[in-house]
Amino acid sequence: MTAGVLHLQCRAYPLHHRTPATALDLFAVPGHGELQPVLGSLDSLAYNPDTTVELDLTGLIRPAVSLPGVEVVACRARILTAGTVLVVYALRHEQDLRQLELLDLDALDARVNRVLRETDGPILSAVLTAAVNSGLVRSIALRPDLAVGGARSPIDRRSARYNAHYVCQDPPWQRDPRVPEVSAGPDCRILLPYTYAWDHDPAAPLAELLTMTEPTDIAVAQQSLLAGALIAGRWVLGDLAHAHPASTDVHAFRRFLDGLWADFHHLDSYRVESSQAHRASYLAARLTMGLDDTQERADKLLGYVSSSLLAAASERAEALDTRLNRVAAALTVVSAASFGLDIAVFVLPQVSLWTKIGVVAGLLGMATSGLVAAMLPGALRRSFLRRGPAALPEPPEVLGPVVAPQAAGTGVAGTGTAGTAPAGGVAGVAAAVGAAAGATALPGAAAGPVAGPVATAGADAGDGGGSGGGDPGNPGVPPQRGRPAGP
């Protein structure tokens, strides 16, 4: 293998959890052996160090990966306190990467990422599931569409995003001219969004290299959190649009968003907690990947989701009030029937059996009619809603003026028009019928707030290895590999 360039890939998975960094016991991964978690930290922070839980996955990943001409030097999972798991690969290639043009280098990285993602998916799911079962990771808040599926792996593959790093002495690649020029930290050169070249010794210890790349990896971790928020918001809107609000657990969604924004702003504090050199790389990375633009779009979408959830809650409250009113009306009818029966017994103490049967039957008929009148409209409305808009009855047609036949030579005094019915006659009836028809309410029709336009959702998860669209936050940015890294 060529020792001149070390290829690092750092993939960020959202994992909203609240885990005390104390349970670091050995735990078993079914079918893959055992793992020993180790306590680590984000060493690029200058103030208030943040702890991590490190898992060495090299022994699990290396036998499963089949990449001709590529050696997996190391694979490490870093569970951050701020609701993210960073999966880092260190790779060496037989091919001399220095000889490749920038776009060819990007295409190579995309192919490698696709193979790694397809291979390590089941392994990462098994590892994180075992970590949850062992108590290493606790109090996980899943995305709503993942939560409704019941028990499953806590890994959120659709929201994952990743960076590509090339570490070598005096890297030969230059920044793509369509990428905005920014001032990155020392030894860092931003080639493309999510793609970096580092002027450093590739033989340095992996821990040192991970500290060097931490600023850009923190930025991509924030991007993955926002991607999860956008996916969750679109899912809730789709659920509400198809009139299935019952499957949306509003309180679970609120807890998910609370954890998401808490984790996002925890990571965002990196801009004030990090050292000067690392802070420059962090700010440059978030600028080129359009992190602020993604945050703005997430705010807009989630604001619209909040309005829609409030409208849906108002609609459910209105339906509940209607049902309670029907129940109250039914109870009133039953109470009236019981009162009428008491009066009949008091007024008619000594009558024949048939008279008593007739009184009781009449009262029961009155009560039944009242109950049917109170309950039937709600049942019909629910039936129409289940059957869809096509099942709703057509509104009655408004009658126009009616012209009555009139004998020749006859007319109405004071009108001046022969053959026209008087206002108080047929035309008046027609007008009354038309007014009644216009006042007839259509079953199931309910007024609701009119929402504004839907905010543009964020980048869809797709093929992280392929060339995606240009960066939405930077017009003119070339197609980039690595924006989506989920399956």
For the largest beta-sheet, the strand count, sense and barrel status come to: 8 strands, mixed
Gross morphology:
elongated
From the alpha-carbon coordinates, what is the Rg to the nearest angstrom? 35 Å
SS-derived structural category: alpha+beta
Assembly status:
single chain
Query: Low-confidence spans: pLDDT under 50, at least 5 residues?
Result: 397-477
Strand content: 5-15%
Strand segment count? 10
Count of DSSP H/I helices: 10
Can you write the helix and strand succession as a string? EEEEEHEEHHEEEHHHHHHH
Main-sheet strand order equals 4-5-6-7-1-8-10-9
Mean pLDDT metric = 76
Task: Tell me the layout of helices and strands.
Blueprint: E1 6-14, E2 27-29, E3 33-35, E4 38-41, E5 51-56, H1 58-61, E6 70-80, E7 84-93, H2 102-134, H3 144-147, E8 161-168, E9 188-192, E10 195-199, H4 206-241, H5 250-268, H6 270-273, H7 276-288, H8 291-347, H9 353-387, H10 426-439
Parallel strand pairs: 8-10
Antiparallel strand pairs: 1-7, 1-8, 2-3, 4-5, 5-6, 6-7, 9-10
Helix pairs in contact: 4-5, 4-7, 4-8, 8-9
